[in-house]
Write a structure and sequence with these properties.
This protein is mainly alpha-helical. The chain contains 21 helices and no strands. Helix 13 packs parallel to helix 15. The longest helix has 36 residues.
């Protein structure tokens, strides 16, 4: 039996369009092209924070439903009805699915992402999020709530994969500015609602017909837009060759000293979760997010309950319809400010952490957060709305800053080789907090209302509880220490991991890669993400003006 054998050695295969080998940076690439690629993805998936603009329109899709037949509809019946409108509590489960699946999918596919590379991962995220929104529009058009939930799972997977796609790449391109680099990307997630929410409102109005809001076509249109934008971001990524470093920069010679807390070694993702450091940082993120997301979920009613007519200088017993509308507008303005500070705080605090260290940065935001949460009830009782709003804005900046800094914190503690996968597992803390925080503040509020507590005081205990949660986060952060050397990857393990990521084949290009001219390509890339962000920023400031 004869077989045809290759003449000499294995045949070299041409890497596929989405393969990691295809996107190893050469001499003409500039590392400052990576942040806009990351922003293109995060500005799209960040629309999850702005999905609340769909809730009320989604409850008005059936014109003139039979009131008798739809009264007291069970949740099970609501899943399958095509003749009755959905309720707000039922449609808001979509956001819970987004956040839950974000953490779960990031944890499951984080290791795959490290080997697949940011182009393949980003494109998969574009398919799941952008394509998912198109199918979500179809589900809304069919008026099948069960299908809406099912498609939301796919969208949530796109959220998780898209969220962690840029992390490892950016940290390796910016070892000298890890916080700033991840701050840029994750700032996009915080700002996604500023861009996407006004677009969604405009599209629903544009496609409205017969008094019925155009939810389905708006979702489909946004899905197409997001797919294109995220795909452009995915194809814009390049990975740094193994051993690359910025010109003139050298890593610290020490290995995770108590002062620097930055290691030059690496921990495998399967080993990282066995360390106390992983769970302490999990607690740092989870407790910060629980407190922050609780305020986000109730910011508008909190401002109205605590200040009410005082916001417009009126008396509660004589407030007119116009003044009541002004109160609602002022509360909406606070939501706009929250989006703004949530986004910009991600870049500010993460960049600050490059100067003062991650541990010191978290110590700062926890101490400051405890003080501000404890003062919020006092500002409410004194009727000082300006101080209340200012405190909320600072809290929200620190909420965003905690998100943006944690990837750099993980890289400092566990090394950069598998930081994307480790980050994927860590943000399960976000999934847990996304459920616990809103439920906690809403439950405490309702409990106090049921027991006769005045609306102006109904948040006092809740806000003190949030301060205690931040105290827990502060303690977790204080106990973070360098990883025990027994958890480090051996040289053989590191070489094997780099081989899986194809980094072993390209180390020779490290000296000259990523030093190309910024040029017109760089300007266009930054304008592509900067212009939509600035438009969203202007709209947020315009809404916030109602507060003043």
């Amino acid at each position: 039996m004869s077989t045809v054998m290759p003449a000499a050695g294995p045949r070299a295969e041409t890497p596929g369009l989405l393969s990691r080998e295809r996107i190893v940076a050469g001499e003409r690439f500039n590392r400052w092209l990576s942040p806009p690629a990351a922003l293109a993805i995060h500005l799209c998936i960040g629309m999850a924070y702005g999905f609340s603009v769909f809730w009320l329109p989604m409850t008005r899709l059936i014109p003139h439903p039979d009131a008798a037949a739809c009264a007291g509809l069970s949740f099970w019946a609501e899943l399958f009805t095509t003749s009755c409108n959905w309720t707000v509590p039922s449609v808001t489960h979509v956001f819970e699915i987004f956040i839950a699946l974000l953490g779960i999918s990031a944890a499951i596919w984080g290791g795959w992402l490290e080997h697949a590379g940011p182009r393949r991962a980003g494109f998969v995220a574009a398919l799941c999020w952008g394509g998912g929104l198109v199918v979500l529009g179809v589900a809304v058009m069919l008026h099948q709530l069960w299908l809406v939930y099912l498609v939301a799972i796919v969208c949530g997977i796109g959220q998780g994969i898209g969220y962690i796609t840029p992390v490892s790449t950016l940290i390796k391109w910016f070892p000298d500015r890890r916080g700033m680099a991840t701050g840029f990307a994750i700032m996009g997630y915080g700002g996604g609602a500023m861009v996407g929410a006004p677009l969604a409102v405009w599209l629903m109005g544009h496609f409205a017909s017969g008094g019925i809001p155009g939810v389905a076509p708006a979702l489909m249109a946004m899905g197409v837009i997001y797919f294109v934008a995220m795909s452009a971001g995915a194809f814009g990524f390049r990975v740094a060759p193994s051993g690359w470093r910025p010109a003139g920069w050298a890593p610290t010679a020490s290995i995770a000293s108590e002062r620097t807390m930055i290691t030059t070694r690496h921990v495998h993702v399967n080993e990282a979760w066995k360390t106390p450091q992983f769970w302490l940082i999990w607690g740092v993120l989870g407790l910060n997010v629980t407190a922050g997301i609780a305020v986000i979920s109730m910011a508008s009613p909190m401002l109205q309950d605590m200040f009410g007519a005082k916001l417009v200088g009126a008396d509660a017993t004589t407030i007119s319809a116009a003044q009541r509308a002004a109160v609602v507008a002022a509360a909406a303005g606070l939501v706009g400010l929250i989006s703004l500070f949530n986004s910009l705080g991600r870049l500010f605090w993460a960049s600050l952490s490059d100067r003062i260290g991650r541990k010191t940065m978290y110590f700062t935001i926890f101490v400051l957060g405890i003080v501000l949460y404890a003062l919020l009830p006092t500002w409410g009782h004194l009727g000082v709305a300006a101080l209340f709003v200012g405190s909320i804005c600072i809290i929200m900046s620190m909420y965003g800053g905690g998100f943006a800094t944690v990837p750099a914190y993980l890289a400092d503690i566990f090394g950069t080789q598998m930081v994307g996968a480790i980050h994927g597992r860590l943000i399960t803390a976000w999934s847990a907090a996304g459920v616990i925080g809103p439920a906690l503040i809403a439950g405490l509020r309702q409990f106090q209302l049921d027991h006769g507590v005045a609306r102006t005081q109904v948040y006092d205990i809740t806000l003190y509880v949030m301060a205690v949660l931040l105290l827990g986060g502060l303690l977790c952060n204080l106990f973070v220490r360098p990883v025990n050397p027994k958890h480090w990857m051996s040289d053989e393990q590191l070489a094997r991991e780099r081989a899986l990521q194809r980094e072993d084949r390209v180390a020779e290009s490290a000296e000259f890669a990523g030093r190309g001219r910024f040029g017109a390509t760089g300007v266009l890339a930054w304008l592509a993400v900067g212009v939509p962000f600035l438009i969203g920023l202007f709209i947020a400031l315009e809404k916030a003006a109602a507060l003043f």
